[in-house]
Amino acid sequence: MNSDKPATGSPVPGSGESAGVESTTVGIVSLIGCIVRREWLVALRNPGQWVNPLLFFIVVVSLFPLGVGPSPSTLASIAPGVLWVSALLAVLLSLGALFDADYADGTLEQLVLSGQSLPLIVLAKVLVHWLLSGLPLLFVSPLLALLLNLPVHAIPVLMVSLFLGTLTLSFVGAIGAALTVGLNQAGVLLSLLVLPLSVPVLIFGSSAVVAAASGLGVAGQLLVLAALLLLALALAPLTAALALRIGVSGSS
Alpha-carbon Rg of the chain, whole angstroms? Predict the structure, then answer.
């Protein structure tokens, strides 16, 4: 008599595929977790990597009231541009440390030759870079906005735009850092590569704050910033990983 029950010990259809997908997912999460943990520990041993951009941001913004005068109307009119340009330069200041230390001690070459997913490694490094260099800018930006007499109701838009914009700049900067890794005077070349690509982020980020300060709608600008972030998230890890492979193979 035939039975509809599967024979004892026979594999359940689809069980192998699901186990493989689960194993791959666990491997990806484990890889990202290891890279994030390592980058965090390295950054804690070198606090200058994340303290210097924050201090630069604070000092540059604080100098403008001394240079243009304490007039509230003048400060309020220049506040969006000053905050955004200062944030852009602060992020740019920290990009040189993204891959240089790993290249100098041979870690980058080992990561490239390890067989692990290099785009995922780049993604993890960029996220840690933003947590250390971009996130602190968000925390101090409300105080600096008040210093420049930016209207209080525009501060939430400033923080949202800086969140989207600085994260996008970190991904874009990773491409420039990967292209210039190991080169002499890489800082100057990095600036020349990244600054033109940062112009759309700067335009829409500052215009969102200007619109919010004027009581206008900001949905369009924020949506464009979100679209730029998604585009950078999709393309930057792959492009930076390819540049790193070329750079490491060319130097070996």
Answer: 23
Q: CB-based burial of residue 192 (10 Å sphere; 0-12 exposed, 13-18 middle, 19+ buried)?
A: exposed
> What is the tens place of the pLDDT at every residue in 119-174?
888 998 899 889 888 899 999 999 999 999 999 999 999 999 999 999 999 999 99
Structure tokens that stand for 100 in this block: 């240089």
What is the number of other CB atoms lying within 10 angstroms of the CB of residue 206? 23
Residue 11 lies in a domain: no
Range of the domain at 88: 18-251
What are the φ and ψ backbone dihedral angles of 116, each rounded to 5 degrees?
A: -75, 165
- Specify if 9 maps to a domain: no
148 and 64 Cβ atoms separated by less than 8 Å: yes
How far is CA 29 from each of CA 26, 126, 209, rounded to the nearest angstrom?
5, 16, 36
Is residue 92 situated within a structural domain? yes
- Distance (Å, whole) CA 210 – CA 229: 20
What are the b/e assignments for 138-153, b being 16+ CB within 10 Å? eeebeebbebbbbeee
> Residue 154 carries which side chain, given as an amino acid letter?
A
pTM comes to 0.83
